[in-house]
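[User] At your convenience, examine this fold.
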Amino acid sequence: MRSSLRGWGGVTAMAVVCVLVALLALCLPKSAVSTRTGGTEKTATSTAATSTATTGSTADEDCEDPEKQTLSPSSADGPTIQEIKNRKGERRKLIVGVDQNSYRWGYRNPNSGKKAELEGFDIDLVHRIAEDILGDPKAVQFKAIPTDQRIPAIQDGRVDMVVRTMTINCARIEDVAFSAPYFKTGQQVLAPKSSPVTGYDDTLAHKRICTAAGSTAYSTLEADKKSGELPATTDISTTVPNQLDCLVRLQLGEVDAVVTDGALAASQAAQDPTVQLKGDAFTAEYYGVAMKKDADDLVRRVNRILVDYRKDTANGWQASYGKWLSATLGKDAKKSEPPAPQYLRTG
């Protein structure tokens, strides 16, 4: 990737572009807070700007392997897909909630020309879905969605789906439907190279950690602090709308570390050579495409697309990984590729 995107310059350039794009009325819907798989959280979908994750929900206690609770693949056009296809003229597009500032996942490249079009691993997948459903990979209306507003955007019908490094977990499957997993990752610590922090351990005592509001990372820290797995003196109060904001906070010295998905943390480290991943991933998580609970035909169609996407070595999953992620996550894509999908039912 271009060296001009790295470090402070890259962050500043992308931040400026993001502000300009926001002024062009990219949708920023209502908020939600979601937390980790099998843990202690329940998604709150109020109209408030922030929500509080709750613990001990029955759904979480009963939930196992949320990444397997999806529908079997199908190429059939059901009512949801037909509604998308029936849109007229310029409106005949797939409406997708994405990120616009996660380097190499979904971001606006300031060096790509006047339009600064969205690029990245998630964006490639969106184009593939649009091509299958509407016959045109460019038939997409992108909407920038902050981390804590992904679920309301789906529930309120502002988007057809969200493709935004969104972890499948037990709380979220109560509110939205997910595709089969398309990426495997885990939570990891990012800190300055000179920092005494060594990973997700006691070295985080008396340290300030930044996470994105409504992220799996925040609820992981919240639950672990309550259970004693995270030092009681660790300050987790700093939350931001988007992950890139955490990197800026870290650079400004306002926090001591960032906790986020390892895949995103690696991309942030690529932007700033003064920071690095500390320790191994301490969770195992899977990204999925999120859709409305009753959009069974769309879920099945996306699952069908994912099967074909992973088989297509020339222009599919592997090619996209090589283009966007191999530089930060390594050339061996197997550790990031999810296992063969398993489906909730075959009917």
